[in-house]
Design a protein that fits this description.
Strands 3-2-1-4-5-11-10 form a seven-stranded mixed sheet, sandwiched between helices. Strands 6-7-8-9 form a four-stranded antiparallel sheet. It contains nine helices and eleven strands. The termini are far apart. With about 250 residues, the protein is of the alpha/beta class. The protein has two domains: about 180 residues, Vaccinia Virus protein VP39 (Rossmann fold), CATH 3.40.50.150; about 60 residues.
């Protein structure tokens, strides 16, 4: 079940306005070029910003998202007609053979239990061509980034056309490692109404990441730093294990 921040139409409509700086996507765009990826699967595409960026650069793009409200926003964006939009998740994909699959933002961390993460990885691997790549980011638990998730450090006030001013902030509500839960608040000044969405993320260390990928038929080929949050995240690049797949088919 998607969090309200993505599933509530009122929140999905303002998602891009309250988080307009998407420089975190630049290195994923660069990866698609670096890897010569003609086709890309954007897992958890949200409101479609990244998918549309790729499509504008000539890539064939499939965006899959479980929150219908976010997908509705994505489909209305300029250039959205160049993207194949799917309502669902990595376990419900049709037959695909893409060169690159991505999970940007928090996507890889929303799978809080081992089974859910494993099935998401397996579904993604099935969507890749042989030796296709998967790229995703996940926060380094050793950096304890959640300690900065509080109202004082996160408060913003944004003027949105047709909506008015919206105040936003996040607050941690529970830390039970490897899980961290936090509440996102949206105060609509014009209506004097506050809407909240509670999310839980799973923090995995490098050993756990590697083991989970191997179990799903991937091999880690590189772990990079995140240019927008240096030293705080792992950007994982994995490849579908051709030898293992060949063994299964033999």
């Amino acid at each position: 079940m998607p969090d309200e921040i993505f599933a509530d139409p009122r929140l999905a409509e303002i998602y891009d306005d309250v988080d307009p700086d998407r420089r975190d996507l630049d290195h994923y765009v660069a990866m698609a070029t670096e890897f010569g990826a003609r086709s890309v699967l954007d897992v958890g595409c949200g409101t479609g910003t990244f998918a549309c960026m790729l499509a504008a650069r000539g890539h064939e793009v499939v965006g899959v998202e479980p929150a219908a409200a976010s997908l509705d926003v994505a489909r209305r964006k300029p250039g959205a007609d160049r993207v194949r939009w799917l309502l669902g998740d990595a376990t419900t994909l049709p037959a695909l053979e893409v060169d690159l699959a991505t999970m940007t933002g928090n996507v890889a961390q929303v799978f809080v239990d081992d089974d859910g993460w494993h099935h998401a990885l397996m579904g993604t691997r099935r969507a890749l061509r042989p030796a296709g790549r998967l790229a995703f980011e996940t926060r380094d638990p050793a950096k304890r980034g959640w300690e900065e998730w509080n109202r004082d450090d996160s408060f913003e006030r944004t003027e949105i056309v047709g909506v008015g001013a919206v105040q936003t902030w996040v607050e941690v509500v529970d830390v039970s490692l490897p899980l961290v839960s936090f509440r996102s608040s949206f105060h609509f000044e014009r209506d004097d109404e506050t809407v909240t969405s509670t999310s839980t993320l799973r923090f995995r260390d490098r050993d756990e990441i590697d083991a989970s990928l191997r179990a799903a038929g991937f091999e880690v080929i590189e772990i990079r730093d995140a240019p927008d949050r240096p030293g705080r995240e792992f950007v994982v690049i994995a490849r579908a294990n051709v030898a293992r797949e060949a063994g299964r088919q033999g």
